[in-house]
Amino acid sequence: MADADYLAAISRELVTRIRDDDPEENGRWLAAVLPDPADWFRLVFVTGALVPDDRTWSQLTAWIPGGAGSATPRQPCGTRAAAARHRRRKEKVCDACLRAERPGPAAWAGRNGHLKESA
């Protein structure tokens, strides 16, 4: 059985991970750091104690892009958003994300859609 201080540390980490990582990844992490499912039940109460009870749901979820309860889905690797996520997490940017950041024909096109001539 995990003690309250350990559960509080897990709870604080989980709050950060929920904002940054996908649910499947968080589930694997939680199962690794708290292998006893009974501790998951205890974690609910410790996490609840960390939540201010004088704020509305909208205030508590204001960090979610698009408003309360409407989290923007995480973009997959191979997109510019995923490349930015790698950098934000100080991870090595994968090849697919590097390719997504390379300028393509759209970047070379002028305002009228024709390719710009080299100078």
Q: Helix share of residues?
A: 55-70%
Topology, number of strands: 0
How many domains is the backbone divided into?
Answer: 2
The largest sheet, given as strand count, sense and whether it forms a barrel, is: none
Output the helix-strand order. Answer: HHHHHHH
Rg of Cα set: 21 Å
In brief:
By secondary structure, this protein is mainly α. The protein has helices at 4-20, 23-33, 37-50, 57-60, 80-88, 95-101, 105-108.
Q: Could you outline the blueprint of secondary structure elements for this entry?
A:
Blueprint (H helix, E strand, L loop, with lengths): L3 H17 L2 H11 L3 H14 L6 H4 L19 H9 L6 H7 L3 H4 L11
Structural descriptors:
disordered C terminus, mainly alpha, 55% helix
Describe this structure in words.
By secondary structure, the protein is an all-alpha fold. The chain folds into 2 domains: 1-68, no CATH class; 73-103, no CATH class. The protein has 7 helices and no strands. It has helices at residues 4-20, 23-33, 37-50, 57-60, 80-88, 95-101, 105-108. Helix 1 runs antiparallel to helix 2 and helix 1 (4-20) packs across helix 3.
